[in-house]
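Q: Structure for this?
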Amino acid sequence: MTSRCSFAVRMAAVLAAIGAAAVLGAPAAAAHSVLVSSSPSADAALAVTPAEAVLEFNEPVENRFTELTVLGPDGASHWEAGPVSVVDTRVSAPLRPLGPAGAYTIRYRVTSADGHPVSGTIPFRLTAAGGGDAAVPAAAAAARPGEDGPVPLWPWITGGAVLLGTGFAVARHLSRADA
Ligand SMILES: [Cu+2]
């Protein structure tokens, strides 16, 4: 076997290994958790404050980085009264008495069973003032804003390029050591 042939065979073997690793490690895009229903439901018109905000997903979600907030008509005030609870497919947070009548928004972010974040918003209306105080509790004010959007592709491309470069260097080195 000539040095050239040996190099080609080793390069092919390295590329095959990289390809297998990429396939095994790639995210399964079809397995994201899906919101099935909510309470309040989307575009609901409520006269009184519900005891809690509840989200139901199509599969159990992981209790990691979970966020469930209810924003007031001013877009900034928070109305959740305590920490988020995750039990299998059910994600919930207790609510304090809502404030002025108007448009409220449930904002959520959960982690799918496959590890991917799923986020979204659910609008609803309060038709009569709830008497609650709009003052923002310190804990709620510290909550991170939701990061909507798809999982970025660039880490995979960059990682693939780095692996490819490394594989090429290794193959060259092995080929040289042979000769
Ligand atoms: Cu996924």
